[in-house]
Structure formats: C-alpha cells, structure tokens
Amino acid sequence: MLLILVYMQEQKVALVTGSSSGIGFETDLLLARTGFYTYASMRNLEKSKNIVEIANRENLPLQIVQLDVNDDESIKKAVDKIVREKERIDVLVNNAGYGLFGSVEDLTIDEIKAQFETNFFGIVRVTQRILPIMRMRNNGGAIVNISSVGGQMGVPFLSAYNSTKFAVEGLSESMAYELEPFGIKVIIIEPGFIRTNIINSSILGKKALDPNSPYFSFTQKLADHFNSMVNNTSTSTPPEEVAKIILSSITSEKPKLRYTVGNDASAAIQAKRDMTDAEFMEMIKKQFQ
Asked: What is the pTM for the complete model shown?
C-alpha cells in the first residue's frame, strides 16, 4: 500500500493538445504507457473514440479533456480541471495545429490570421495558463513545442504555415532563457514528413482553389507532392517515432533545445546549412518541377 501511495504522489502529469490523431494521439498513448497520467486534449470530443477504446482496453492512466487552443475559456476550464484533480502539470506538449496551402497573394488576411491563431497564439495561450502552475511547484517541468522542418526553411505556397513555425522557433528559444531559472525545460520538435492525416486536416486558401488563380497549377502540384511524400513509407516517418523522441527529451536530465525527426528533415536542414541561399533555393525548386 505504501508503494502505491508513493507512486501516486510522484506520478507526473502531462497535457497534450491536438490529441485526436497523429503525433498527439501517439504521444498520449506512449506517455500513458510509460506511467504519466496523461490528459489527451482535443477541440472536438467526437474524435476521441479510438484513443478512449485503446486506453480502456489497456487500462491506461489517460483521460480525455476538451480544449480548444483558440478559446481562452476552454483552456481555463481544461487546466482548472487538471489542477483540481491532480494538483500539478509536469509536461505540456503543444501539438495542435494545421497546414494552410496557398500563395501570399491568394491567401486572405483572415486566413493568415486564423493560421497564426491556432499554430502560434494557441501555443502562447496554453503555455501562459500552465506556467504559473509549473513554477509554483518549484520542481521544474517540460514544455514541448511541435514545430516543423518548415520552421527552419521556407517552401513555396506554405508561406503562412512556415511563418507560424518560424515564430514558434523564436518563441521557444526566448522561453528557454526565461524558464531556465525555474528548472523548466523548453524543447522544440522539428518533424519532416510524418505519416499522419495532416494533409486531410490542411486547407487550401479559397482563392487558391480558383482555377483562374495564376498560382493554381503550382499550388495543386505542391499539395499533390506533399500528399505523396506523406503516404510514401520510404520518405515519411511514422508518428510513433516522434512520440519516442518527445518521451526521450522530457525524461532527459539535459535535453537538447531542438530535435529533428525524420531522415528527410535532417537532410534538408543539413543542406540548408551547407549550401548558399541560392543553391538551396535551386534544390527546393527542382523538387517541385
């Protein structure tokens, strides 16, 4: 009985956003299987059936919670519930996000703002709500921000998406300095092509769907290229591998600031470092010809 009580007192608590599928889904399951009490959050609870079935079947310490990263009240309710039940949050994985295809000219200001609301300001909102809880416990914690290889380089027709990920990288670097005195680790995960439904959850700008757009054929070609890369097992990485990197980083005493996941991502980032800007741009353009 004493051992059980000690375990309950020491059990760490994790919150993962964007848990209905892909990286968030696999991260929830891996953390729960490893012993973290895991709150799998998502905007639409109707998408929770699969993860609930697995958690129940395996008797995992996992609970579903509704959380919309664009809604302050939703975030407050979710975090208040966790603190009320567990009195702590040790790990936050900011994973919620989506892709937006379209040229700068075709995208509307509202579409670009919506992209930033979820991919960037969503991270800010959830993190701001959780940081006081992590600091008050005075025992550190870890904040994992899911960026992308697209946070290190731009590609055509993903200007809005890339911009949000560049912003996440800058935010995370600055946070790392700010939170180090409190023992809170900040970790950036940079996946490449991951076998998830991100293409299905991505959207094309309304003008980008118009065949009369001067960019229409190029945008369609890029979307098709991304779809084929994600579904190609030789060029993409399963989301379980991202989850493993997340687990390894948050349990490390001295984690790195950045973790690139996928051979494609590592090769692209290395090429950008080794090449001139002109050389790298030529390489990228050849991939989409």
From this structure: 0.92
